Amino acid sequence: MTNKSSSFSKFYMLLIFIFLYAPIIVMTAFSFNASSSTYQMNGLSLHWWSRMFTDNAAMEALKNTLILAVATTIISTFLGVLAAVGLFHQKNKLYKSAMMSVTNIPLMNPEIVTGISMMLLFVFAGTLVKKSEVLGFSTLLIAHITFCLPYVILNIIPKLRQLDFNIYEAALDLGCKPLKAFFKVVIPEIMSGIITGAVMSFTLSLDDFIISYFTNGPSFQTLPIYIFSLTKKRVKPDMFALSTLMFVVILILLVLMNIAQSRADKKEESRI
After folding, report:
1. What's the pLDDT at 271?
2. Which of 31, 91, 189, 208 could form a disulfide with 240 if both were Cys (CB 3.0 to 4.6 A apart)?
């Protein structure tokens, strides 16, 4: 009975993985198609990959996406470290609990609700300052920081809980200034959480569509929105190549994040 249950579980997991990754595999395969057909393979070619890099609109959207993702990662990581340290050292338990609950809201809130509410907020703020073209890079950046920041905070706080603050106190007793002790003692110990939060921020910002769709303007278009605009007409395999490139980049970042997390866990176990 146990062997049957185990075999059924493995078969069930295999079906789930096929269901999840079969579309990506098909998309990747057709990005190497020699013809423009999206349903029949006619040989292998790198034509669509080379054409992708000559598409000015796609490359502009890719550049915008990378600029937005990098800016979001830097700001959300910086603010996340400060917020995590502040929340960890907060003595008022009621305030701390309330702030942690607020931090979890962007994670649990449906993206479409977040996107629409932020769009209305930005438009309302624009009317107050009498500015018609309010949506653009700045609103996208604020929106992306809003939903990426909780991931940074929630990745750093567990590392702060594992930290022995007696080491920090010892550094202060030996004459080290608080700021220098923070960078020399605390930051190295929570670096794995910072890296994990930063990578998550980058990947979430890179492939976000729903929130970006509601908070972007005509002057700044990200790659997911550009790809969505192409679905209104026939999609060519060069977009398959571009989507495959995005998937590979995100996959590499997630693998690196898991490696960093695994090394941090092994380092923690060796201390114990």
Report:
1. 61
2. 31
Task: For residue 44, report the phi and psi dihedrals to the nearest 5 degrees.
Answer: -105, 140
Q: Are 205 and 69 in contact (CB under 8 A)?
A: yes
Torsion of CA 132, 136, 142, 146, to 10 degrees: 110
β-sheet bridge partners, residue 44: 33
CA–CA–CA angle 96, 101, 254 (5° rounding) = 110
Beta-carbon contacts of residue 205 (< 8 Å; ≥ 6 apart): 68, 69, 72, 73, 144, 148
Nearest Cα to Cα of residue 208 among 5, 78, 89, 72 = 72
* Residue 160 pLDDT grade (very low, low, confident, very high; cuts 50, 70, 90): confident
- DSSP string of 29-56, one letter each residue: HHTTBSSS-SSS---B-SHHHHHHTT-H
**Amino acid 4: pLDDT:** 64
Instruction: Return all residues near 140 (Cβ < 8 A) that are at least 6 apart.
Output: 68, 212, 215, 216, 220, 222
CB 94 within 8 A of CB 145: no
In sequence order, what are the beta bridge partners of 33? 44
Find the mean pLDDT for residues 243-266.
78
Q: State residue 73's pLDDT score.
A: 94
Tokens 């096929």 locate to 18
